């Protein structure tokens, strides 16, 4: 899919992606930010930036649908048809559904744990395995490579959060966007060059969605 050449929303793009997976059993859908090459009234002007950050968020959303059990209509809605470019889609979803948090690490089922920002499939397996032998602490989560800099806003261990953190959208949004600032600047080309994604690499999307 070419991103940014026309007016489709992110919701339309991930709905189409989901439909392609379900209807045609595709293995992958690929996204590519539109690069202006010639003047045309039907297309963006030549000085329009390539939407690399938007492309990146769509790849992350695609990963969530393929490996985390999310559906397009959960990630976005008619009210919010675009991803927040400052946040990865998993954090964006969590902030829109704070009623589900905090999640208790010692009792939550696997599908709930998988939706916590900072916790990926491998971490979920480790948590479920460790719970058979006793209660899990934040120190144990660090050893399991749970990304606590994100997860800390959404979890408890033994009924307690890592710090006294308000479950409040504006506060958590500010904290998470501060964490994302460096990677956002890199993708937008403000610090280092960014290679556009291609057909042969996921560019560590899995780690970034989990983180």
How can the largest sheet be summarized?
2 strands, parallel
Ranges with pLDDT <50 over ≥5 residues?
none
Helix content: 40-55%
What is the strand content?
Answer: under 5%
Biggest sheet strand line-up: 1-2
Could you give the order of the helices and strands? EHEHHHEHHHHEHH
SS field, number of helical segments: 10
Classification by helices and strands: mainly alpha
Rg for CA atoms: 18 Å
Task: Tell me about this structure.
The chain has ten helices and four strands, in the order E-H-E-H-H-H-E-H-H-H-H-E-H-H. It is mainly α. The chain folds into two domains: 137 residues, no CATH class; 55 residues, no CATH class. A two-stranded parallel sheet has the order 1-2. Strands 3-4 form a two-stranded parallel sheet. Helix 1 links the parallel strand 1 and strand 2. Helix 1 runs parallel beside helix 2. The protein starts with a strand and ends with a helix.
């Amino acid at each position: 899919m070419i991103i940014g050449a026309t007016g489709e929303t992110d919701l339309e793009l991930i709905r189409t992606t989901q439909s392609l997976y379900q209807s045609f059993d595709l293995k992958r859908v690929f996204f590519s930010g539109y690069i202006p090459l010639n003047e045309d009234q039907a297309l963006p002007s030549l000085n329009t930036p390539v939407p690399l950050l938007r492309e990146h968020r769509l790849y992350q959303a695609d990963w969530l649908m393929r490996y985390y059990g999310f559906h397009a209509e959960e990630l976005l809605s008619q009210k919010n048809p675009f991803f927040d470019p400052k946040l990865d889609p998993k954090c964006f979803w969590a902030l829109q559904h704070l009623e589900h948090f905090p999640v208790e690490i010692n009792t939550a089922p696997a599908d709930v744990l998988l939706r916590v920002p900072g916790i990926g499939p491998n971490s979920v397996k480790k948590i479920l395995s460790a719970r058979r032998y006793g209660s899990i602490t934040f120190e144990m989560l660090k050893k399991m490579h749970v990304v606590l800099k994100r997860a800390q806003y959404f979890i408890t261990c033994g009924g307690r959060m890592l710090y006294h953190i308000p479950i409040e959208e504006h506060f958590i949004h500010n904290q998470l966007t501060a964490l994302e600032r460096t990677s956002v600047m890199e993708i937008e080309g403000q610090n280092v060059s960014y290679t556009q994604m291609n057909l042969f690499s996921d560019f560590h999307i899995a780690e970034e969605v989990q983180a």
